[in-house]
Design brief:
Layout lengths: L10 H10 L14 H4 L6 E5 L2 E4 L4 E4 L2 H4 L8 H12 L9 H13 L5 E5 L2 H16 L3 E5 L23 E2 L2 E2 L16 E4 L4 H9 L5 E7 L14 H11 L3 E6 L10 H5 L6 E4 L10 E5 L1 H4 L17 H14 L5 H24 L3 E6 L2 E6 L8 H7 L2 H13 L2 E2 L8 E2 L6 H18 L1
Parallel strand pairs: 3-15, 5-8, 5-9, 9-10, 10-11
Antiparallel strand pairs: 1-2, 2-3, 4-12, 6-7, 11-12, 13-14, 14-16
Helix pairs in contact: 4-11, 5-11, 12-15, 14-15
Length: 446
């Protein structure tokens, strides 16, 4: 068995966490990094290189979180470091037109099938919010439809049915209970939000028929990525697209998570879709806050002159544009060889994990689409929607496994609702080390 790292000593991380609690709410800047997720406290990461990261105590980890999937090129890729450093030396940001944003947009359009026109933003939340505003303006309708278990950002109108709940709390499939994900929302914010189970075309059609002529847009992830990894059923997304077209509803595909990870053109290329609007983020910026939404020119033109308002000092940040342009260039070399590489490596990892679970008699599956994968502790052969995830997936058991993997030098998200990612920086050696660490972790937990 390959030797694995031992990382039980995290005293300096604990010290930093205690210090952080004096200045930051819960010692962090996002609840997904907090103590409730990481038990005794976050692992304080100090540096990364390629597919590995090191914490404040010098412990080394194979990183499969990769900044929640933002680092498709890995940590501190030399070419990107050089590009960003050179750009920084000439000025960090101008809040004015630059040639870098033009070239980034041109490359984006060549890769993304539906992108007739592009607008760069800072975050995926901002991109989806603007896509919905644009859809309402273009159609003159106010309502929009989203799916259970999908997360499209943290703003009021769409912050509903995104988190796991006890099965009895979500209501009937025919009439889902619309439970807000946060306190403090505008009490009218969700009046125009329609929630429907995913992977269920009859439920979608019924919801559309119940609101004739009122729905501006239907927004969906191409792969449900807020409940681990849940692929669409065969033909589901094509059926969704067809229903939207038939009823004059704009089809918004949220590729904040899947973009530039599944295929050069994202889920729309892989599943052969033609969305009216599409949002991107995470991998687009390679660790810098860069996102975008794009789509049909006749819809996007409503932004002209601020008719549909979108301000932002940091829109198309200059350094971010240099990073995005360089990364997209690398991803399209040799006919998209990078994507073939990460798919093949993910095959090896998922296959090894599945065989290990079988050999150990562990009731767990690996769900994945390409390089995106998640381990789910369940007796079922697959999980196909939010309701099945809430009912059949043992999230606590997965969290204990993730904590144990930290001890053996593998860094994955401790939240079962999230997922891991294989990138171009990962290697066959990383796969072997991870499988060895997984075996030790399972033996330890047993």
């Amino acid at each position: 068995m390959m030797e694995t790292s031992q990382t039980q000593n995290r005293s300096r991380s604990q010290q930093w966490f205690e210090r952080a609690q004096q200045s930051l709410v819960e010692g962090v800047n996002s609840p997904s990094r907090g103590a409730t997720v990481y038990t005794a406290g976050p692992i304080m990461l100090e540096r990364g290189q390629g597919s590995h990261v090191w914490d404040a105590d010098g412990n080394e980890y194979v990183d499969f979180m990769m900044s929640f999937g933002a680092l498709i090129q890995g940590h501190a890729h030399p070419a990107l470091v050089k590009t960003v450093s050179n750009a920084m030396a000439e000025g960090s940001h101008f809040a004015a037109a630059t040639s870098a944003e033009v070239e980034a947009a041109e490359r984006f359009r060549r890769m993304v099938p539906s992108a007739e026109v592009v607008r760069f933003t800072n975050t995926g939340s901002e991109a989806t919010m603007l896509a919905l505003r644009l859809a309402r303006a273009h159609t003159g309708r106010t309502k929009f439809l989203k799916f259970e278990g999908h997360y499209h950002g943290w703003y009021d109108d769409i912050l509903v049915a995104s988190n796991p709940l006890p099965p009895g709390a979500v209501g009937l499939r025919s009439d889902p209970v619309k439970i807000a994900d946060s306190s403090g929302l505008n009490r009218h914010a969700l009046e125009d939000t329609i929630v429907v189970p995913w992977n269920d075309l009859p439920s979608l059609e019924r919801a559309i028929q119940n609101h004739p002529g009122q729905i501006a847009a239907v927004i969906t992830e191409g792969v449900m990525a807020n409940m681990g990894v849940i692929p669409p059923d065969d033909g589901y997304l094509e059926g969704l697209q067809k229903l939207a077209r038939h009823h004059g509803i704009l089809f918004i595909l949220d590729e904040t998570v899947t973009g530039f990870r599944i295929a050069p053109g994202g889920c729309q290329e892989y599943y052969k879709l033609q969305p009216d609007l599409v949002s991107f983020g995470k991998a687009l910026g390679c660790g810098l806050p860069v996102a975008a939404f794009a789509g049909r020119a006749d819809v996007m033109s409503e932004l002209a002159g601020g008719s549909v308002l979108h301000y932002g000092t940091h829109n198309a940040s200059r350094i971010g544009m240099f990073a995005a342009r360089a990364s997209l260039r690398k991803l399209t070399r040799d006919g998209g060889a990078a994507f073939r590489y990460i798919w093949n490596l993910a095959d090896q990892l998922a296959g090894g994990l599945t065989e290990l679970f079988r050999r150990k008699g562990v009731p767990a599956i690996v769900q994945r689409v390409g390089p995106m994968f998640q381990i789910m502790f369940t007796e079922r052969e697959s999980i196909r929607d939010y309701r099945e995830f809430c009912r059949y997936v043992d999230r606590r058991k997965y969290q204990r496994l993730s904590w144990k993997l930290f001890e053996f030098g593998v860094y994955i998200s401790p939240a079962a609702t999230l997922h891991s990612i294989v990138t171009v920086a990962h290697t066959a050696d990383d796969v072997e080390r991870t499988l060895a660490a997984m075996e030790k972790a399972l033996d330890s937990l047993a």
